[in-house]
Amino acid sequence: MTMLRRRIRSVGLVALLGLLGLGLWWAIPTEEQRIRRVLEEARAAVSADGGTGSTTPPDGPGGTLAMLGRVGRLTRCLTRDVEVEVDVFGGLSGHLNGVEEVRAAAAGLVQHLPGLKVRFSEVEIRQIDPPGARATLVATIDTGAREGRAAQEFELRFRKWEGRWYISRVATVRALRSR
C-alpha cells in the first residue's frame, strides 16, 4: 500500500510541476507577443478611437488633450532616432528622422484627420534576435472621408533596449488598394 501511495504522490508531483510549467509558459509573453503589444499600442495611438472601439472622436478641450495623449503614447513606442519613410495613398509621402519630427507630424495628422482609424492585418514578425526584429503588416487606413480608405503594406524594424521593444524604422512597401 505504501508503494502505491508513493507512486500516486510522484505522479501528482509530476502533474503539478507540469501544470506549473504550462502556467508559466502561458503567463510569460514571448518576444513575438511583446512586439505585437508594441504594434497594438502604436495602432491604438494613431486611431481616432484610441483603441477603445468608440466611433466618435472626442472634441473640444478634452479632444485636444486626448490627441496629445495619443501622440505621447505613439512616441513611447519609438526609438529616439526612429526613421519613417512613407509613400502613402493620396500622394502623402515623406521622410522623418527622430522622434520629435514624428511627434510633430503625428500631431498634425490626428488634428487634420480627427476620424482617422487604423487596423492591422497580415502581421508577420520575423528575424527576432536580441538586438532587433523585423515585421511586415498591412495597415488599413480610413480617414473618415468619402474616398479616404486604403490599404498599405509596411515594413517595420524593432530594437530592444532595457528589455522592451521599440519601433526604430517604418517604411512603405507598397500601396495595395484605395477605395
Q: Any overview of this molecule?
A:
The protein is an alpha+beta fold and 179 residues long. The chain has a single domain, classed as Nuclear Transport Factor 2, Chain: A, CATH 3.10.450.50. The chain is built from four helices and six strands; from the N terminus they run αααββαββββ. The protein has a six-stranded mixed β-sheet with strand order 2-1-6-5-4-3. Helix 2 packs antiparallel against helix 3 and helix 3 packs antiparallel against helix 4. The protein is elongated.
Which helices and strands occur, and which strands form pairs?
Blueprint: H1 2-27, H2 31-46, H3 60-75, E1 78-87, E2 93-97, H4 99-112, E3 117-129, E4 132-142, E5 149-161, E6 164-178
Parallel strand pairs: 1-6
Antiparallel strand pairs: 1-2, 3-4, 4-5, 5-6
Taken in chain order, the helices and strands follow as HHHEEHEEEE
Instruction: Output the CATH topology.
Output: Nuclear Transport Factor 2, Chain: A
Write down the overall mean pLDDT: 79
Regions with little confidence, pLDDT below 50 for 5+ residues: 51-62
Instruction: Please identify, by name, the CATH architecture.
Output: Roll
Neighbour order of strands in the largest sheet: 2-1-6-5-4-3
DSSP helix fraction: 40-55%
Rough shape?
elongated
Query: What is the first-to-last residue Cα distance?
Result: 75 Å
- What is the domain total for the residues? 1
By secondary-structure content and strand pairing, the structural class works out as alpha+beta
CATH top-level class:
Alpha Beta
Q: Biggest sheet, in brief?
A: 6 strands, mixed
Percent strand equals: 35-45%
Using only CA atoms, what is the Rg?
A: 22 Å
Tally the helices: what do you get?
4
Number of E-type strands: 6
